[in-house]
Design a protein that fits this description.
- The protein is mainly alpha-helical.
- 71% of the residues lie in helices and 0% in strands.
- The chain contains 14 helices and no strands.
- The radius of gyration is 20 Å and the shape is elongated.
Length: 227
C-alpha cells in the first residue's frame, strides 16, 4: 500500500527523481487524495515536475482540477506550462473548458499554446470550435493545421470537409496523414473519393491511414444497412 505521507515528504523535499517517481505513483491513488499531493508541486521550480503535475490534474479529475487548470492557462508566464494546462483541460473533457480554450486560441501569442488549445477543442467534441479551427487551418504554422484537421475529425464536423480536403496534396506527410485519419470520421462522397486517392500515397503511413479510414467508413455503412 502506498504511504501518502511518504509521498508528500518526497514531493516537498525530495530531489528531481523523487518528485517524478512520486507523481508517477499517483496513478494508483484516488483523485481526492492525489489532488492534495499534486498541489504540493504545481509551483515547483523544475518545469518537468510542474508539467507532470499539470498532466496529473487532467487525469485525476476532481472538483478543483478544472479551476486550477484554467488559472494556470490564463496566468502562468511560461508558455510551455500554459500549453500543458491547455492539453490537460482536453483530458478532462469538461464542456466548461470550451470558453477558456477558445480565449487562449485567439489571444495567446505563442503557437504551442494555440496548438494545445486546438487539440483540446477536438477532445471536447464541441461544434462551436468550427470558426477557430478554420482559422487554425489558415495558419502559417503547419502544426496548427495538423491540429485543426485532427480536431475536425474528432468533432465529426462535416461542414469542414471541403476546407480540409484542400490539404490532400500537402507537402507535409503528417498533414496528409491527419487528413486521412480525420476523413474516417467524416462520411461523405468527397471524403471517400479523397481517401481512395490517398490510399495510393507514396508515404506508407499516409496510405495506411487512408486504407484504415476507408475500412472504417465501409463498416459504418454496413452497420447502418443492417439496422
Amino acid at each position: 500500500m502506498i504511504d501518502l505521507a511518504v509521498l508528500a515528504t518526497k514531493l516537498r523535499t525530495g530531489d528531481l527523481k523523487d518528485k517524478k517517481l512520486s507523481l508517477a505513483a499517483l496513478r494508483d491513488i484516488p483523485g481526492s487524495d492525489a489532488l492534495e499531493l499534486i498541489k504540493l508541486v504545481l509551483d515547483d521550480d523544475n518545469q518537468q515536475v510542474r508539467s507532470m503535475a499539470i498532466f496529473a490534474l487532467g487525469i485525476k479529475q476532481t472538483d478543483e482540477s478544472f479551476a486550477l487548470l484554467v488559472k494556470i492557462l490564463e496566468t502562468d508566464p511560461d508558455y510551455g506550462i500554459r500549453a500543458d494546462a491547455a492539453g490537460a483541460l482536453g483530458y478532462l473533457e469538461d464542456p466548461r473548458a470550451f470558453e477558456p480554450l477558445i480565449r487562449s486560441f485567439y489571444e495567446d501569442t505563442d503557437w504551442l499554446v494555440r496548438f494545445s488549445a486546438a487539440v483540446s477543442l477536438g477532445n471536447l467534441k464541441d461544434p462551436r470550435a468550427h470558426d477557430a479551427l478554420i482559422q487554425a487551418l489558415n495558419s502559417p504554422e503547419v502544426i496548427l493545421q495538423q491540429a485543426a484537421i485532427a480536431a475536425f475529425g474528432e468533432i465529426g464536423d462535416l461542414s469542414a470537409v471541403d476546407e480540409i480536403l484542400a490539404f490532400a496534396q500537402s507537402e507535409d506527410w503528417l498533414v496528409r496523414q491527419r487528413l486521412a485519419e480525420a476523413l474516417g470520421n467524416l462520411p461523405s462522397a468527397k471524403g471517400t473519393s479523397a481517401l481512395r486517392y490517398m490510399a495510393k500515397d507514396n508515404h506508407p503511413q499516409v496510405s495506411e491511414a487512408a486504407k484504415i479510414s476507408l475500412e472504417r467508413l465501409a463498416d459504418r455503412t454496413a452497420k447502418v444497412d443492417t439496422e
